[in-house]
Amino acid sequence: MPADSDLIVPNGDDRHESRNNFKSLAERSNHEDFIRRAVDLLVERVVFGRSLRTSKVVEWSAPQDIATAIDLRPRDSPATHDELLGLMADVARYSVNTAHPYFVNQLFSSVDPYGLVGQWLTDALNPSVYTFEVAPVFTLMEEEVLREMRSIVGWADGEGDGIFSPGGSIANGYAISCARHYFYPETKSKGVYAVPKLVLFTSELAHYSTKKMATFMGLGGDNCVLVKTDQYGKIIPDDLEAKISKAIEDGATPFLVTATAGTTVYGAFDPLVPISSICKKYNLWLHVDAAWGGGALMSKKHRHLLNGIELADSVTWNPHKLLAAPQQCSTFLIRHKNVLKECHSSNAKYLFQKDKFYDTSYDTGDKHIQCGRRADVLKFWFMWKAKGSEGFEKHIDTLFDNATYFTEHIRQREGFRLVLDKPECTNVMFWYVPRCLRGCENDSDYKERLHKVAPKLKERMIKEGSMMVTYQPQGDLVNFFRIVFQNSALDHKDMVYFANEFDRLGKDIVV
User: Fold this and answer.
1) Could you read off the pLDDT of 457-485 as tens digits, one per residue?
2) What does the buried/exposed string (b/e) look like for 485-495 if buried means 16 or more CB atoms within 10 Å of the residue's CB?
3) Structure-model confidence comparison of residues 138 and 2, the more confident one
4) Can you say how many angstroms the Cα of residue 257 is from the centroid of all Cα atoms in its chain?
5) Is 297 exposed, middle or buried (0-12, 13-18, 19+ CB in 10 A)?
6) CA 447 to CA 451: how far, in whole Å?
7) What is the largest CA-CA distance in the chain?
8) Could you give a single Gene Ontology term from the biological process aspect (predicted)?
């Protein structure tokens, strides 16, 4: 990989050029050389150099060291182009290398080449997607992609509506907003004071965004009732119905259930068919948070994990997770055609004029709570064009195959204990047990000591930069590792690498 200095060739006229940096327009005479050198640096240093298995996942530095290495403060005088290129190299150097094959720390990873080019095109065009007038291609593109996604969910002819939203948390908030408006449209004008005490339900292992958005929208965190889960992390339908009945007895008004298709930690898929039956019985809105697991819908082999999703009123699905689109790329899909618009539109006359010379039904921005909005659709659409649905299916099948292989591999190795015997998704959870704890399972302090292993091992892997895997406790379970497979460039040899690396870094830990 070229050194940073090899990519930054000093420009003799750089100081002169910096005098015109204030102009908000690309000028060939002033900016062409800089832009081409910047792109070369990105391609060589970031895209290809950082995707090598021999590179580091992260070059660990303490906060004060990064603040010393990079001049982070804004300043009065303009930087030269050479200085800017140097800053680019430093930012890349000290940032986590999420494109690295061994970054398996979060529910996203890798930098897909087609998604990246699509994102670059998005940034070069710099659109804001609210009207056909200013975003003619993207307003049409969004509707086509969202319709196809709704069709894949299982809604006839892709009917319904949908939006791209800034993250799955906000998409889950849209579900609460739409469900409330569907049952109580007067809240739009009169607020929460005009409706009964509303209660919603979700899994105790669901993403925290449901409770957070209930708080944000004035429903109150206490009115987000958490439903018990079984040993595999799935909602227990009987407990859901019992809690709905209890809420009604207490004088509250249930209106929404959020089920999860691929929980954050366990990767569990809630039983959607029985949950849907309960929702129909009590006339509740069913939302499915498939932000993580939605990608499995692209695979004939694995879409059964989401059986019943077609019964939902709304769905969150994040292509930037299991399908590996670049951050961020999140969608909210809804079965009901006009609820998004009726719930959120304000008909701002300076933007959404009804007397335009074209069909204003293409001015879709009023469905959103945002005004200015990125064209997140383009990178995903471009990936879909490049790979086809067949490519996405192969991608998903590869992820699940790797997860199965890794699970079986560590099952047979000394020092590894699985949290779940057979994970449903591509999350694999396990404890690594160093030599000092092997054979000590019956000791009174075993769990306390095991809890300390993961932080120590994580510190070692980060400081060496050899991989990045997250850990967490869960309920009564002490700290365990959760490795997440979302990068289809990995193969079985990489699965063995991960296990070997845990053993190398962790076997001599003393707790």
Assistant:
1) 999 999 999 999 999 999 999 999 999 99
2) bbbbebeeebb
3) 138
4) 21
5) buried
6) 6
7) 78
8) carboxylic acid metabolic process
